[in-house]
Amino acid sequence: MSDDIDIKLKRWLLLLTNVIGSRAAGSQQDKQALLVMKNHFEKLGLETTIENFIFWAYVPRTWSLSVDNETIPCLPCVCSKSTDVSPVRGSVVDVGYGSLDELTDVKGKVILARIGRVHESFKAEAAVKKGAIGMLLFSEDDPDGIYTGRVTYPIGPLPSVCISKNDGLLISSLSKRRSAKAEITIGADTKRSVGRNLIAKLPGQATLTDESIMVTAHRDSRRFSPGANDNGSGCAVMMEMARLMVDKQRKRSIVFFSTDAEEYGCQGSSRFVQRHYPYLTRSCVGALNFDSVGQGKPHLVGRDREGALSSVLNKYCEIAGKKMGETIGHRDHPGGSDCDSFARTGINASWIRCWPSSSFNTTTDSFEKLDYDVMSRICKLGELILDRLASSSGKI
Do 221 and 175 fall into the same domain? Predict the structure, then answer.
């Protein structure tokens, strides 16, 4: 059975990442992935619905970075501010991870920050308040690719680009030995675009059919990233979980929710929760979010930024892990995901994610780097959690 799941997961990931490719929200590739998932759910006999919403897509046209007149390969952060008429020029200052206590002496300068500890959108917001004029970002986890960052939707507070680990460490060294001068150019547009949420319902079979359990996984990826781990892995796991659950007895309905525009600050899940607020607060007993589950070991994510996630639902996840001999870790994470949209309304929500992940949100987040044994175990974990939640009655 595990080998069968493993093969199916590989097929889904090959299709999503190698055939369809990067799935920026609102793009044709994003729409292709939606149709693939819709077709899969309908073949299983699930009722499917597509709900459209409007959001502002970020479309970069030109971008460049030079340090001491040397061209450095870079990518613009999603939602980065444009430089308009003239480039941003300033001395580079290494601010570590860009936490508040590290943002000293940044006025009129371009900050160089590592990914982690503080989300890049918060780094940018804090830095511009202290007078910074630009931001360079790099990940120390991926030696080969370039991280694809995101600042505040719909437009961040300052021009921001991402560079490779090697270039980041080199610029850091230069900035500490002498004054390194950076020049950033970004030309980009914001475009009114259509996002598409896909909802697939597996109805309950008894008296609790009006009660539901949500399973969420965002379908879109960041521009320039193949999006295998983030979040082709979650999509593949969700599709396999639907297959595993379709013939099981259940009292509650299970709703598989493929969200769009998560990489723009969870726009798809936020719109869904707003639209269905009365039903969700009355009938949704819990929301399980699978985001970036293709590398590392399973963890339950802590989300102090949006309010704590459900300790009750987390307990169900831990019990299922013990049943299959899987230790589920706990970890706080500065980034957001679709669980936040549910948690804000008081709905029980949990986020299952795997760590460590070397290629998360990078240009090398590819099919070949995923651990399919880990993903098979995540499928089994999800099946056990859903089996218990869907077959029980009363409050969780």
Answer: no
Are 158 and 255 in a shared domain? Answer: no
CB 198 within 8 A of CB 268: no
CA pair distance 6, 199, nearest whole angstrom: 25
* Domain extent for 116: 60-190
Query: How far, rounded to the nearest angstrom, does the alpha carbon of residue 180 sit from its chain's CA centroid?
Result: 33
**What's the predicted TM-score (pTM) here?**
0.95
Main-chain dihedrals φ then ψ at residue 395, nearest 5 degrees: -70, 145
Confidence band of 243 (pLDDT split at 50, 70, 90):
very high
Residues 303 and 300: their CA atoms lie apart, in Å, by 10
Nearest to 23 by CA among 285, 276, 224, 252: 224
**Environment class of residue 331 by beta-carbon count within 10 Å: exposed (0-12), middle (13-18) or buried (19+)?**
exposed
* Backbone Cα Rg of the chain: 21
Residue with tokens 């020029």: 89
Q: How far apart are CA 135 and CA 123, in angstroms?
A: 9
Quick one: which of 154, 94, 104 has its CA closest to 127? 104
Domains identified in the chain, total number: 2
Residue 307 pLDDT exceeds 60: no
To which residue do tokens 């479309």 refer?
Answer: 59
The helix (run of H) or strand (run of E) holding residue 168 is helix 165-177
Residues 6 or more apart from 38 whose CB is under 8 A from it?
48, 50, 198, 200
Whether the pLDDT of residue 351 is over 70: the answer is yes
